[in-house]
Amino acid sequence: xxxxxxxxxxxxxxxxxxxxxxxxxxxxxxxxxxxxxxxxxxxxxxxxxxxxxxxxxxxxxxxxxxxxxxxxxxxxxxxxxxxxxxxxxxxxxxxxxxxxxxxxxxxxxxxxxxxxxxxxxxxxxxxxxxxxxxxxxxxxxxxxxxxxxxxxxxxxxxxxxxxxxxxxxxxxxxxxxxxxxxxxxxxxxxxxxxxxxxxxxxxxxxxxxxxxxxxxxxxxxxxxxxxxxxxxxxxxxxxxxxxxxxxxxxxxxxxxxxxxxxxxxxxxxxxxxxxxxxxxxxxxxxxxxxxxxxxxxxxxxxxxxxxxxxxxxxxxxxxxxxxx
Length: 324
What we know:
By secondary structure, the protein is mainly alpha-helical. The chain has helices spanning about 5-25, 30-40, 40-60, 60-70, 75-95, 95-110, 115-140, 155-180, 195-220, 225-245, 250-260, 265-300, and strands at about 185, 190.
């Protein structure tokens, strides 16, 4: 591909990003966001922001596991920056845009080959949902959440779902620990099992991240709800958002929280808390991610030779020497 075509593709990519940001901005009542945030005590906002920053930091370390596993030699700071940008865009625009497109774009710009990117991305996705399986499975199986009477899923069905989720998580860990076969081909894609120690790190980081996200919500909701219910509502809303295929769970998060927690606090206060959570956890990181993305693009453009570094495109098997 010629340099002219590369510049054109980069320009088109930035145009798409700007259009996505503009579309998202039109859906947000910015005056309401500012009003809600202004009504909170500074201590509450600072606590929520600190928990949100900790969560984004934990998630941004997910791809460091992939770096150790595949053996590629990108600097750790760049891996963290790419993961942060991808996560922020994933939260606001959906998995295909953030979780996939941005990772592929940013990793390929600095020389990672497609198989390595696929393994890093797959491990990151598995890390995120492994903690979900354990936490949601435990909460659902213990019947911590009381579902509204009008929902099709009853208490027994939710408890059964919790048990299934726990079994799925245990099955993944067992395969990583004891399976002799380490690779499968599913729909043309090769799925490779990580070693057991790496799988345990996946579980630890993912659980910490989900607990931190719930901490942000619990901080914004206040003492009338309680942390276990805030966590349970978050996990149910996350599942509903995936099923509904709605970017950023727009409307889904609010509907789930009103249905599950509407009897514990006034609906207006509940919506205000969720709106404040969105501002702290979704929108502020997105603004920072745009700046980080621009820096990464500039650095990649200034150092095109970096993509030809043989250490960057090291074979995936090299990660087996890391001890993970």
